[in-house]
Design a protein that fits this description.
Helix content: 10-25%
Largest sheet: 3 strands, antiparallel
Structural class: alpha+beta
Oligomer: single chain
Shape: elongated
Strand order of the largest sheet: 1-2-3
Number of strands: 5
Strand content: 25-35%
Radius of gyration: 16 Å
Order of helices and strands: HEEEEHE
Distance between the termini: 22 Å
Number of helices: 2
């Protein structure tokens, strides 16, 4: 069942956005469990949120993707997995998984 997110967003003037979690995935990368939420926005586009980002030893901040809008759940899932693994290397001494503080399970 598809919710009318625009209608829900108009219920009160202070509602800034309504997103529907349409899929939750768990992936294990070299022993670390990462949770991925795939969400749909009011325009019908899909995006993801990761529970953790990988910060490699040479970088000060964990990777935060600039492109996070997709036309399907599958595309969003692939984008999330690419983002989660983009900088990860099992041989990266000093690198670490960093909790995404804005992720709420």
């Amino acid at each position: 069942m598809m919710l009318n997110l625009s209608e829900l967003g108009n219920l009160h003037a202070d509602i800034q956005a309504v997103h529907e979690i349409v899929q939750t995935l768990k992936v294990i990368i070299d022993g670390k469990e990462i949770e991925i939420d795939i969400l749909r926005n009011q325009n019908g586009h899909y995006f993801y949120e990761l529970s953790h980002y990988y910060k490699h030893a040479d970088k000060t901040d964990p990777h935060d993707p600039s492109e996070n809008r997709f036309s399907s759940v599958e595309e969003a899932a692939r984008g999330a997995l690419r983002c989660a693994t983009m900088f990860y290397r099992s041989t990266d001494e000093g690198g670490a998984w960093v909790r995404n503080e804005s992720f709420t399970p």
